[in-house]
Amino acid sequence: MPGENLSRDEAQERGRLLSVDAYDVALDVRSALAHGADADTFRSRTTIRFRCAEPGAATFADLLAPSVTSVTLNGRELDPAAVFDGTRITLAALAAENVLVVDAQCAYSRTGEGLHRFVDPEDGEVYLYTQYEPADSRRVFANFEQPDLKAPFTFEVTAPEGWVVLSNGAQDGAAEDGRHRFATTRPISTYITAVVAGPYHYVSDSYRRTFKDGTTLEIPLGALCRKGLAKYFDADDVFTVTKQGLDFFHDHFDFPYPFGKYDQAFVPEYNLGAMENPGCVTFREEFIFRGKVTEASYERRANVILHEMAHMWFGDLVTMEWWDDLWLKESFADFMGSFALVEATRFTDGWITFANRRKSWAYRADQLPSTHPVTADIRDLEDAKLNFDGITYAKGAAVLKQLVAYVGREAFLEGARRYFKRHAYGNTRLTDLLTVLEETSGRDLAAWSRAWLETAGVNSLTPQVTCDAQDRITELGILQEAAASHPELRPHRVAVGLYRRQDGFAEGGDPALVRYARAEVDVSGPHTVVPELAGLERPELILVNDEDLTYGKVRFDEGSLATLRARLGELADPMARAQCWAALWGLTRDGLMPARDYLDLVRRFAGRETDIGVLQSLHDQAQTALEHYAAPEHRESAGRELAEGALRELRLAEPGSGHQLTWARHVAAVATSPADLQLVQGLLDGTAKIDGLDVDQELRWTLLEPLAAHGLADEAVIAAELARDDTASGRRQQVRCLAARPSAEVKQQAWQAVVESDVLSNALVEATIAGFGQPGQHELLAPYAPRYFEAVERVWRERSIEIGMAVVRGLFPSWLVEHSTLEAADRWLAEHDRAAPALRRLVLEKRDDLARALRAQACDAAAGARP
Questions:
Q1: Residue 558: which residues within 8 A CB-CB, separation 6 or more?
Q2: Fewer beta carbons within 10 Å, N or C terminal of the chain?
Q3: Among residues 439, 397, 396, 431, which one has the least CA distance to residue 415?
């Protein structure tokens, strides 16, 4: 049986043979309200009209379904048992023009793949939504599941009376007998079709735009969520960002939004952040905030809204031909999302978040053994699924940011405008984009593309400075280096900033580190001189890639590093400070700075960080440094110092501020001593107070988890908390806390629920895994290292790819940072050389993280051994 893992070669051959004229898809989801086995499946009837370039040839349609009732090809009934193998329908003796009708029983999903069915524990209501990328629409209707076989779609959905039902197109007239018919779409790919159905809370608005030629565009807007979340739903803010984004893209793209209405559905148990289905965008419902969150959370939601909106042009209107060019949509959406965020919304510091969070994700991915060029070699759908990664998104976006500087903003945007008009409703490759950018910029982009899009790896940039006896710079150069495995030295456009202490710049008039000179330079080859900075006074800090113009790891000369160790908190500019924090974290990850030094910097200077997103990153990184990079003999004292510093900053934070909330969460995360845990318990039960800190339900769960992990909250306590918050979110938090408890029986139950059973939904699998691997529980978890390697191939074979990825990544024995774990991983890789390539890639990535942690621990231990 060929199986469900469609290869690129198969897709190319089918794409050569076929062109698709139309899909009519009729779904009957009234069974969603049934009970037991009757609620497992729904009826799906699909009519596909398509042409074949070679009459008489054979091909196949895709369908993942428990059963097929009938298959009709050109009026001829086919035997389902003969032509359907569980994943594909064989189509032989095709005519020049064909009509295929497939009537099937498809399965509701519990993994977030296909048509997901969710029962709200709060009120028993049932909610449905679809999620397909890269290839799960075949779980809902028969089709040709590849991005280049675009077609218009007409959906009809029969649903329970009173339900809100949405698809890509607007509803065509009133529903009759529960039957909702939707307007036919423009030609789109299968993976961005969508259906949302259930008793959703729906809010409407509209967007109106008059263009220079006098024409007017009106777009109906909708935003929806479960009824249980309606009281928290700030739809007005969602609509505000939506309208700002539509204005921005209309201003710059000169191509009106092409898909009619614009609904945005916030749905439960979602695997992704969001999905760009035209006219019916889906988001994870965690973007509806049940409690107080920081401004960084609102910024992230706005960024995701704009990212998905950019896809309406980059990805939906113009789509990559095959997943090799996934970057043509994801890199552009990631870049344009931040671009629009900064220029069109209240989140004007969005590039700081991009530099600090998105690029950190990219740098990590680009140093893994599985790194790949931005434009990748995607052999099949499993490859495609794994390439939704930090390179395709964040590195590609960073490269595009540099490309804008290279060709010029207007040339870049004019290239985008020509690209949309030239390829509207079609499919493209890398060369199609480069062609229009060369036209608008007058530059030959072939060399740029080879260096930035077609090779993997990240360069490091280190300043080298010499000064004379009068402390004047005689020469300042930039050393560019690359890993031996990926030796490409790239062209970089960078700004070099020189900083020194100046009086009166910091709050209160205290001295601050301020930039006093700046030069832009094109870096090429191993060494580049910056002549404009010669003759200036010796700096205390040299920041290569000031303002974050290029993609590369920043290093420091010895003098600059000494300055940061002493006075990082005095660096006045928030972007420069974020750049320095990111570079210091890179040194720590690379085993070039002891973890204790990084933790000391966080302890001393994180309290002066003004950007809330950067502060949250510092907290996350400090926990990673403590749990994985600190030498074991130093971990206890380092953890105690980190916790003491966190509590100090919590007490100093402005009452009611986002910083106070962030420090409260961090205190809970790093609490280990009896006194710290007593404070956490007091905040939870109300016997301890921090002025201005509102301990709402979301914070209560954050406080409860470390208590459960330290054996201070048993099953009854957790059950009592669930009674306060018996909601979908509360159930997830309960499962996580239950799995966190320090008991061999608890760990066995969690392992059994995730690895040996498929009863849990994707959201509860994720919650169980998150609770299972607690720091400080090494003895309890050690027995699961060999069990992981025994089970992982079977899990990959038997479970859906989404659950398989969650288990392979989440249960890798990262908690056991020992050479024996590394040896076990190496042994598994050596003995399973024929395992699925995607599975091997996941294990290899986790193995690399483990090896990196061991190197970092050795660095930390060596620092402690020095006199």
A1: none
A2: C
A3: 439
> 759 Cβ partners below 8 Å, 6+ apart?
753
Answer yes or no: are the C-beta atoms of 694 and 671 closer than 8 Å: no
Determine the length of the chain. Answer: 867
Q: At what angle do helices 744-755 and 784-798 cross, to 10 degrees?
A: 20
Q: Are 250 and 313 in contact (CB under 8 A)?
A: no
Residues with Cβ < 8 Å from 625, sequence gap 6 or more?
A: 588, 595, 598, 599, 856
Alpha-carbon distance of 812 to 153, in angstroms, equals 42
Share of the chain above pLDDT 70, in %: 99
Distance of CA 386 to the CA centre of its chain: 12
The four Cα atoms 211, 278, 376, 457 give a dihedral, to 10 degrees, of 70
Q: Contact, 50 vs 19, CB < 8 A?
A: yes
Q: What is the pLDDT of residue 235?
A: 98
Tens of pLDDT, residue by residue over 52-88, are 999 999 999 999 999 999 999 999 999 999 999 999 9
Lowest mean pLDDT among 126-140, 154-168, 439-453: 439-453
- pLDDT, residue 441, reads 94
Residue 412 CB: number of other CB atoms within 10 A? 19
Amino acid at the residue 498: L
Alpha helices in 742-836 (DSSP H): 744-755, 762-772, 778-781, 784-798, 801-810, 819-831
- Beta carbons of 579 and 588 less than 8 angstroms apart: no
Closest CA to 763 of 107, 38, 109: 109
At 1 the pLDDT is: 33
Q: Which pLDDT band, with edges at 50, 70 and 90, does 2 fall under?
A: very low
Q: Look at the alpha carbons of 239, 151, 25, 127 in this order and tell me if their dihedral is positive or negative.
A: negative
412: number of CA atoms within 13 Å, CB side? 15
Helix 837-865, helix 784-798: angle, nearest 10: 150
Query: Has residue 428 got a pLDDT over 80?
Result: yes
138: its two tokens: 């075949």
DSSP-H helix ranges across 606-727: 612-624, 632-652, 658-670, 674-685, 697-709, 715-724
The catalytic position among 113, 285, 308, 570 is 308
Q: Is the pLDDT of residue 450 over 70?
A: yes
Residue that is written with structure tokens 């130093």 in the block: 634
Residue 472 has pLDDT above 70, yes or no: yes
Residue 667: the pLDDT is: 98
Burial class (CB within 10 angstroms; exposed 0-12, middle 13-18, buried 19+) of 522: exposed
The secondary element (H helix, E strand) that includes residue 302 is helix 295-311
What is the number of helices (H) and of strands (E) in the chain? 29, 27
pLDDT tens per residue across span 151-171: 999 999 999 999 999 999 999
- Environment class of residue 123 by beta-carbon count within 10 Å: exposed (0-12), middle (13-18) or buried (19+)? exposed
Q: What is the pLDDT of residues 281-311, one digit of tens each?
A: 999 999 999 999 999 999 999 999 999 999 9
Q: What is the pLDDT of residues 85-95, one digit of tens each?
A: 999 999 999 99
Q: What's 620-642 look like in SS3? A: HHHHHHHHHHCCHHHHHHHHHHH
Report, as an integer, the average pLDDT of 3-9.
88
Cβ neighbourhood burial of 462 (10 Å; 0-12, 13-18, 19+): middle
> For 315, what's the count of Cα atoms within 13 Å in the CB-facing half-sphere?
25
Q: Of 331, 301, 335, 329, nearest to 313 (Cα)?
A: 329
* Residue 192 in this model has a pLDDT that exceeds 80: yes
Alpha carbon separation from 44 to 108, 188, 223, 298, 536 (Å, rounded): 11, 20, 27, 38, 73
Consecutive H or E run containing 386 = helix 381-386
Name the token pair of 498: 């020189």
Assess contact for 128 and 106: CB atoms under 8 A. no
Q: Indicate if 308 belongs to the active site.
A: yes
For residue 780, the model assigns a pLDDT of: 96
